[in-house]
Amino acid sequence: MSKVRYEVVEHDGGWAYKVGDVLSETYPSHEVALKAATDAAARQTVAGSTDGIVYQDNQGQWHEELADGHDRPSTEVVDKP
């Protein structure tokens, strides 16, 4: 099982959460960004339906896979105010 880490960081005059190298939208306060990160992390653990997905990797190659909607990652929220 994989683990997804949400990190609350200062960004663009406000606060955002970051997963890997990807930043969320900017929130006006640390508290709002932390709540958004916590909500997103919780939603990511909810099982869904098994569906086909298409995605592009960091080399620009496209892939098609069948994603098991019950194989959800664990998540953590890291708060560094």
- The helicity comes to 10-25%
**How many angstroms does the end-to-end distance come to?**
29 Å
**Would you identify the regions where 5 or more consecutive residues have pLDDT less than 50?**
none
Number of E-state strands:
6
* Rounded radius of gyration (Å): 15 Å
Q: Which shape, going by the Cα principal axes?
A: globular
What number of domains? 1
Strand order, largest beta sheet? 3-2-1-6
Task: Give a quick summary of the entry.
The chain has one helix and six strands; from the N terminus they run E-E-E-H-E-E-E.
Tell me what you see in this structure.
The chain has one domain. It is of the alpha+beta class and 81 residues long. Strands 3-2-1-6 form a four-stranded mixed beta sheet, covered by helices on one side. Strands 4-5 form a two-stranded antiparallel sheet. 19% of the residues lie in helices and 43% in strands. The chain has one helix spanning 30-44, and strands at residues 3-11, 14-19, 22-23, 51-56, 62-67, 74-79. The protein has one helix and six strands. The protein is globular, with a radius of gyration of 15 Å.
List keywords for this structure.
four-stranded mixed sheet, 81 residues, single chain, two-stranded antiparallel sheet, globular, 43% strand, alpha+beta
